Amino acid sequence: MVSIDVPVFYQEWATRSGGVIDAAAGVGPDTLEDARLAYRTFFQDSFPAPDGVTFDSVDADGVAAECATPADAVPGRHLVYLHGGAYLAGDPQGYRGLVGDLARRLRARVLVPHYRLAPEAVFPAPIEDAVTAYRWLLEEGAEPHNVVLAGDSAGGAMAVSALVAARDQGLPMPAASIAISPWANLEHTGATMFTLDGVDPSVNRSGLSRAADIVLGGAPRNNPLASPVFADTRGLPPVLIQTGAHEVMLSDAVRLAAKLAEDSVPLRLDVAPGMGHVWHLLAAHLPAADKAVADAVAFAEEHLPAAVAEEIVEGLARPQPSRLSI
C-alpha cells in the first residue's frame, strides 16, 4: 500500500488543481493536456486500483466510460459514479482507487462516465453526459431500484443535478443518491466560503470562482443544473450528503440539504469534524475516511434490495434436487 502523508497529499492536490485551472485559462506554463495527465498520474500513484476488481472500457451511448466489476458482484446491482475535478479534469482511470474500493465494499458494478470537460465542452455538457450514461445503463437492463448514483465535488453536485435533469426527461429515479463534498453553489455565497478560505487544505474560493467562469461558458452561476441549491428537487430519491467541517463548500452543502428537505426529499446530512475536501480518498490512511466510505456504502445498501434476498430468490428459481422421504 502507498504510504500517504495527509497534509502533503492535500498540498499536492491543491497544486495539481491550480495547474489545471491555469492551463484551462491559458495562463499556465503547461498545456491543458499535460496538466490533466499530471492530475491523473497523481491520483493513480496515490490511490492504485485494488485487487479483485476488473476495469473495462464501455461506450455508454456515445459517452466514454469505464465499468469496475468486483469478483463477488451481486447480480444486477449497479453504482453510477461521477468523478470530481471541477469539470476541468479527472477521469475514470484516475479514480480507480476510490471506485474500486466502493465496488468491493458494495459488491456492485460501477459505471464511471468520462463526461466531457471544459473548456472544450462547457455547461451543460457534463450533465448531458451523466444523464445519457444513466439512461444507457437502464436500457442495458439495469433496474432503477438496483441503481445508486454517487459522485464527489463537481460529481457530487451532479449526483443531484443529473437526477433533476433525468426526472425532467421522464426517466425513472434510482434507489438513492450520494453527494460527497458537493460543489453545489457556483455563486460561492456560503459563509464558509469566507470563514474557511485558507483553512480548507485543498480548495479555495478564488480557484473555484476561476473554474466556474471557465466551465459555465456564459451560463448564469445560479442556473439550477449548475448550482443545485437553486433546483426544484421534488421527486428525487433519498440523498446522502457527506461534507467535511473544514471545507469552504460546507455552508453550500448544508444549503443543498435544506433545499432537498424543503422539497420533501428523504435526506441525511453527515458533517465530518476536521475533514477536508473528499477525504474519502484517504481510506486505509485515515480512520475518518474509512468511516465515511463505510457510511456511504451502508446508505446505499439500506436503499438497495438485500443481496441475500436476491440470492435466495435466484436459488429458488433454479431446479431443486429431488428428495426422498424415509
From TrEMBL:
The lineage of its organism: Bacteria, Bacillati, Actinomycetota, Actinomycetes, Kitasatosporales. Belongs to the 'GDXG' lipolytic enzyme family. Residues 79-280 form the Alpha/beta hydrolase fold-3 domain. This is Esterase. InterPro entries: AB_hydrolase_3, AB_hydrolase_fold, GDXG_lipolytic_enzyme. It comes from the Bacteria. The keyword Hydrolase applies. SUPFAM superfamilies: alpha/beta-Hydrolases. Keywords: Hydrolase. It holds the Pfam family Abhydrolase_3.
